[in-house]
Amino acid sequence: MKTLLKAAVAAIGLLSAGASLAADLRGRGVLPPAPELPTFYNWSGVYVGGQVGYSWGSDRASEFATAGRVPLGRSFDYSPSSFIGGARLGFNYQFGAVVVGVEGDIEGMNAAEGRGDLGGTVRVRQDWQGSVRARLGYSLDRILVYATGGVAFTKLEYAYVSPLAGLTETINSSRTGWTVGGGVDYALTDNLILGLDYRYTDYGRFDHVGGSAYLGRTVEHEPSAHAVRASLAYKF
């Protein structure tokens, strides 16, 4: 019995000594501080910025007889291309690693090209384009990978020339289409965001019924375009 009592007293003494030593060490600041938890970038917020890039298009012009829309066996492809530049405005909201947003942009360009022969020539010019799109992305801290899609709009100017008759007719066609693509954003700082993206845009098919130079002929157009852009934005 005495042996058990002595062992219990010794154990209590050791525990008391350990507690006193730990308290003493804490008091002297020997224990290291707890590490700080890592902070991750938050993509939520409004941003505004600028963009520059390059656009290359495709437009097939196919000719038909206006009466009965009989194919005339004449079609040619041309590819208007241009450097582009403009502005963008958007909003992102992040929950977890998923980022959803909406973005609009408008940009100027100088795309022009023509194709044809002595039977007739078609020339196209495009001065501006824009879009309003939804975005869905996945955040890897300061890197955001996303897909985007929405509505695109532009104005195309076509000139139809009949070299033999010396006649020209011109139309301006405001077009609305769809656009899809994707990109990568990188947060250089908490406010500055660098981006790179690609988009494909399709403006559908439409007809021009000739009135003077192309009297009796109808031209079907199928305009579309590819574009790559680099951007720099400020997030508020």
Automatic annotation (TrEMBL):
<protein>
    <submittedName>
        <fullName>Outer membrane immunogenic protein</fullName>
    </submittedName>
</protein>
<feature type="signal peptide">
    <location>
        <begin position="1"/>
        <end position="22"/>
    </location>
</feature>
<feature type="domain" description="Outer membrane protein beta-barrel">
    <location>
        <begin position="41"/>
        <end position="236"/>
    </location>
</feature>
<dbReference type="InterPro" id="IPR006315">
    <property type="entry name" value="OM_autotransptr_brl_dom"/>
</dbReference>
<comment type="similarity">
    <text>Belongs to the Omp25/RopB family.</text>
</comment>
<dbReference type="GO" id="GO:0009279">
    <property type="term" value="C:cell outer membrane"/>
</dbReference>
<dbReference type="InterPro" id="IPR011250">
    <property type="entry name" value="OMP/PagP_B-barrel"/>
</dbReference>
<dbReference type="InterPro" id="IPR051692">
    <property type="entry name" value="OMP-like"/>
</dbReference>
<keyword id="KW-0472">Membrane</keyword>
<dbReference type="InterPro" id="IPR027385">
    <property type="entry name" value="Beta-barrel_OMP"/>
</dbReference>
<keyword id="KW-0732">Signal</keyword>
<dbReference type="Pfam" id="PF13505">
    <property type="entry name" value="OMP_b-brl"/>
</dbReference>
<keyword id="KW-0998">Cell outer membrane</keyword>
